[in-house]
């Protein structure tokens, strides 16, 4: 917990990384991952219980990522006026309240009440992600910023697997699939059965509340570095308005490209994970929800392995080249998922998760690094987090496509198109890197000739 020998530079980065604080910060990534993966369970559960279309079931992600979108800027303003630590404490509090709201939701048994609970929970997660992503990249030497964020992100699949396991064994039950069971009941029987099933929904959130309270205490008693750029002469740096920030960022083409790439990446990842269980149930009528959720565990294991392998590759090769290759392979796999009418397409979706790992932290770090004026760091980080709204939009589009075509499998063409856009982004970044490297070589040669 000691901050001894930790020195902060003018740009907010540190001379060395405080290990305990970094570990605590990284654990937050697993907490919001658990909440996100539970959404994938809820989509399948609520579709049957409330008799929803694929489009309507995607509202879970709309409520979740809508909360992120609306709160990111207010969260950034809190960080700017106070600290990353204060924003994290607020985030953990809202997260806890959102989990607690699952108690009345399960008894009221209305879809809208569950959506409200998910929205409140997402407010907390917006504070956490707006804080933790930027904070993780800055809580140490600048040259290791992207690596630190990638390592923190490896906690994401651990939390995601935990969330799915909680859903698999606490929400889903043994026996036939819910849809199969409810199709044999009268309307009155189905309603009563659905209400009893919803009682299982709050079980995983009981455990989350206990973990969140422990984390609240740990963050409250631990001293953290500020990691915020020091004020410029005259003290004007702390008084930058949001309007001025938006004006500055609107002229930053690299920042805008990063926002677009992040929007489609988050939308693609969310929609693949949202509908993998549904895809398995569609292609194999003999399995139930509990069995189908095992595919999500495989997906998050693949996600974890993909992150680990990517960290090794990025340390040896240019990161944009690695991710461009990842994106091309991902496009091909999603094409396979959308046209192969057997269970192997589910394994194709699992393999796609192997390629998701390094995308978010790399796009985030590169986009944030494009903001040269560090007085805009906090609001810029918030705007990148706002691009998570792709997770609300793209699953809804895939749900509409699925309902319109009458095929969950063909609807996977939607995330494939998203991966194409992400591939274009990394291709442009790869070309920019190559151009800059050539320019630097030319400048060095000219300098060497002038010296001679």
TrEMBL record:
SUPFAM superfamilies: MFS general substrate transporter (SSF103473)
The keyword Metal-binding belongs to this UniProt entry's keyword annotation: no
Keywords on record: Cell membrane, Membrane, Transmembrane, Transmembrane helix, Transport
InterPro entries listed in its UniProt record: Lfuc_symporter_FucP, MFS, MFS_dom, MFS_trans_sf, MFS_TsgA-like
Compartment annotation: Cell inner membrane
Superkingdom of origin: Bacteria
Membrane-topology annotation of the record: Multi-pass membrane protein
Pfam family, one: MFS_1
Positions of the Major facilitator superfamily (MFS) profile domain: 19-434
Chief location category: membrane
TM stretches of this protein: 20-38, 58-79, 86-103, 109-128, 149-172, 205-222, 263-283, 295-314, 321-339, 345-364, 376-397, 409-428
CDD domains given in the database record: MFS_FucP_like
NCBIfam families, alphabetized: fucP (TIGR00885)
Protein's name in the database: L-fucose:H+ symporter permease
């Amino acid at each position: 917990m000691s901050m001894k020998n930790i020195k902060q530079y003018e740009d907010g980065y540190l001379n060395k990384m405080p290990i305990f604080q970094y570990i605590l910060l990284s654990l937050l990534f697993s907490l919001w991952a658990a909440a996100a993966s539970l959404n994938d369970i809820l989509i399948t559960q609520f579709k049957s219980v409330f008799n929803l279309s694929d489009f309507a079931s995607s509202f879970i992600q709309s409520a979740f990522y809508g909360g992120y979108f609306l709160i990111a800027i207010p969260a950034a303003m809190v960080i700017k006026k106070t600290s990353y630590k204060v924003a994290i404490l607020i985030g953990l509090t809202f997260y806890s309240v959102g989990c607690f709201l699952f108690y009345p939701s399960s008894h009221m048994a209305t879809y809208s009440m569950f959506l409200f609970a998910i929205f409140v929970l997402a407010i907390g997660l917006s504070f956490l992600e707006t804080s933790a992503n930027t904070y993780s990249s800055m809580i140490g030497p600048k040259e290791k910023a992207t690596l630190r964020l990638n390592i923190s992100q490896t906690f994401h699949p651990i939390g995601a697997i935990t969330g799915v396991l909680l859903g698999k064994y606490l929400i889903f039950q043994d026996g036939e699939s819910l849809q199969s069971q409810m199709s044999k009941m009268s309307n009155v029987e189905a309603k009563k059965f659905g209400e009893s099933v919803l009682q299982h929904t709050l079980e995983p959130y009981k455990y989350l509340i206990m973990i969140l309270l422990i984390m609240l205490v740990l963050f409250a008693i631990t001293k953290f570095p500020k990691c915020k750029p020091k004020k410029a002469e005259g003290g004007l740096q702390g008084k930058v308005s949001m309007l001025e920030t938006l004006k500055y960022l609107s002229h930053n083409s690299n920042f805008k490209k990063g926002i677009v790439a992040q929007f489609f990446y988050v939308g693609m990842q969310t929609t693949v994970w949202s509908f993998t269980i549904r895809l398995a149930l569609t292609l194999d009528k003999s399995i139930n929800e509990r069995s189908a959720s095992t595919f999500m565990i495989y997906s998050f294991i693949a996600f974890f392995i993909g992150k680990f392998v990517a960290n090794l590759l990025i340390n040896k090769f240019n990161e944009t080249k690695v991710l461009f290759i990842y994106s091309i392979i991902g496009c091909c796999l999603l094409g396979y998922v959308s046209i192969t009418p057997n269970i192997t397409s589910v394994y194709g979706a699992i393999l796609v998760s192997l390629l998701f790992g390094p995308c978010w932290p790399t796009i985030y770090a590169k986009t944030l690094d494009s903001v040269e004026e560090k007085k805009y760091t906090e609001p810029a980080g918030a705007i990148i987090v706002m691009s998570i709204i792709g997770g609300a939009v793209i699953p809804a589009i895939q749900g509409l496509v699925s309902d319109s075509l009458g095929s969950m499998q063909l609807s996977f063409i939607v995330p494939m198109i998203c991966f194409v856009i992400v591939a274009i982004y990394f291709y442009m970044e790869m070309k920019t890197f190559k151009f800059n490297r050539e320019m630097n070589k030319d400048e060095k040669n000219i300098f060497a000739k002038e010296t001679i």
